[in-house]
Design a protein that fits this description.
Layout: H1 33-44, E1 49-53, E2 62-68, E3 71-77, E4 83-87, E5 97-99, E6 103-104, E7 111-112, E8 118-120, E9 139-144, E10 149-153, H2 163-167, E11 184-195, H3 199-206, H4 212-215, H5 217-222, E12 223-233, E13 236-243, E14 258-262, E15 266-270, E16 274-282, E17 288-297, H6 302-332, H7 346-369, H8 385-391
Antiparallel strand pairs: 1-10, 2-3, 2-5, 3-4, 4-9, 6-7, 7-8, 9-10, 11-17, 12-13, 13-14, 14-15, 15-16, 16-17
């Protein structure tokens, strides 16, 4: 849970829930392989996913790789200045981030332009029926929001959700109008790998401060926790609270602290001198990678910036400890569900509603179709006879029969 000093908003739609909603998701949803695979299809292959800030792709050929819920893709800036996203289905000899002059596959020597078009396919120039324009990299949809953050979406179907339909105009909210990300520079990224908890455990944790009094001494010392509230709307959860008397608003140099969670798995926290984004990346049904990008305001005092970074890093470490132990209890098999406080845990209720709605709606689509639906699956030739043969076998295909 981030430090949440800021303004107190008025009433918000979609906050909290009915009495039927105020019990947590079942523990089985935090350890089930079947639920995780459904989440990959219904959420991570279907929703817009936060990635990073455009400042990390400032020059031609700059790229950043991502693996989100098992889906591999990368962002790259082409020679026309456009930022593209492509599935990383082949080994293009890319490190996690860097600069590439050419995108080349080490396996068969194919190469591609930064815009995704096929540049060279050895020996295929004489192959009958081979169409180079039909064999480029598989692209993802890309959106840049008003702060310069980049989002991707893997669903290329005709009825795929737009960024505006998922998030409305959350990047135009009043308190973000004071933020100019051009005044911040990318400093570094860091990661906590192989965290022993389901991705939803951390997002539950992030979206309430009910635990802050007992688990985050730094927050409890500086924040009036009774003033804490969230504004839940358009797949986002904006956190608000007031500082305790005598405590500056914002970290170390005054101003607001702005923490916002963006469904399904990411958040950013912006202060006058320091900003960081967080991606809660599922790596299996019961493990997660915590990935952070850190930014520095151009006018930040170095010692104040360092102190702020250490404070936020400590909070992230405290939450990792809490979530690891939550998952241990979930795995023990004795806990099923628990009550959620309609105000103190309103953000958790909203987050879990979004998960529940996404999974149940997608499952109904799959039941109606009679097979699994993976929006990220690229089928250049449509459904072939080989696909039909495979789908008749248990768990053979991404579009295979339902096992429930």
């Amino acid at each position: 849970m981030p430090s949440v000093v800021g303004d107190i908003p008025g009433p918000a739609p979609g906050q909290g829930g009915t009495s039927e909603d105020t019990y947590s998701l079942p523990a089985s949803w935090y350890r089930s392989e079947e639920i995780y695979q459904l989440e990959r299809r219904a959420i991570f292959a279907k929703k817009w996913l936060f990635t990073t800030h455009k400042s990390r792709l400032s020059e031609t050929g700059k790229y950043v790789l991502f693996t989100i819920a098992g889906y591999n893709f990368f962002l790259i800036k082409d020679r026309q200045g456009k930022i593209n996203a492509f599935h990383n289905g082949e080994d293009h000899h890319l490190t996690e981030a860097g600069t590439a002059a050419v995108l080349a596959c080490k396996y068969h020597g194919w190469s591609y332009k930064m815009s995704g078009e096929l540049a060279k396919a050895p020996s295929f120039d004489k192959e009958p029926g081979f169409v180079p324009s039909e064999n480029g990299l598989w692209d993802l949809r890309v959106h840049e929001d008003k702060l310069g953050f980049l989002w991707v979406n893997m669903d290329k179907s005709a009825d795929a959700i737009s960024w505006a339909d998922q998030f409305g105009a959350f990047d135009e909210q009043e308190r973000l109008k004071e933020v100019n990300m051009d005044d911040y520079v990318y400093d570094h990224s860091w990661e906590m790998k192989d965290c022993k908890y389901n991705w939803k455990v951390l997002n539950d944790n992030f979206n309430e401060c009910y635990h802050c009094q007992s688990s985050h001494p730094g927050i409890a010392k500086s924040v009036d926790l009774m003033s804490y509230s969230v504004r839940c709307e358009n797949n986002t959860i904006a956190h608000h609270a007031l500082p305790k008397p005598g405590v500056k608003q914002g970290h170390r140099q005054g101003g607001h602290i702005i923490p916002i969670f963006m469904f399904p798995y990411a958040a950013y926290t912006i202060t006058p001198i320091y900003a960081y984004s967080m991606r809660v990346v599922p790596t299996s049904a019961t493990t997660t990678a915590m990935q952070y990008d850190v930014y520095r305001h151009k006018n930040a005092d170095p010692s104040a910036w360092k102190e702020t970074h250490e404070a936020f890093s400590q909070i992230e470490g405290e939450d990792k400890f809490l979530c690891t132990n939550v998952q241990k209890n979930i795995m023990a098999g004795t806990y099923s569900q628990g009550p959620l406080h309609s105000e103190r845990e309103a953000g958790v209720i909203y987050f879990q509603q979004l998960v529940r709605e996404a999974l149940t709606a997608h499952r109904e689509e799959e039941k109606a179709a009679g097979h699994k639906i993976n929006p990220a699956l690229v089928q250049q030739r449509g459904v072939t006879a080989d696909d039909v043969f495979c789908s008749a076998l248990e768990d053979c295909s991404d579009n295979g029969p339902l096992s429930w």
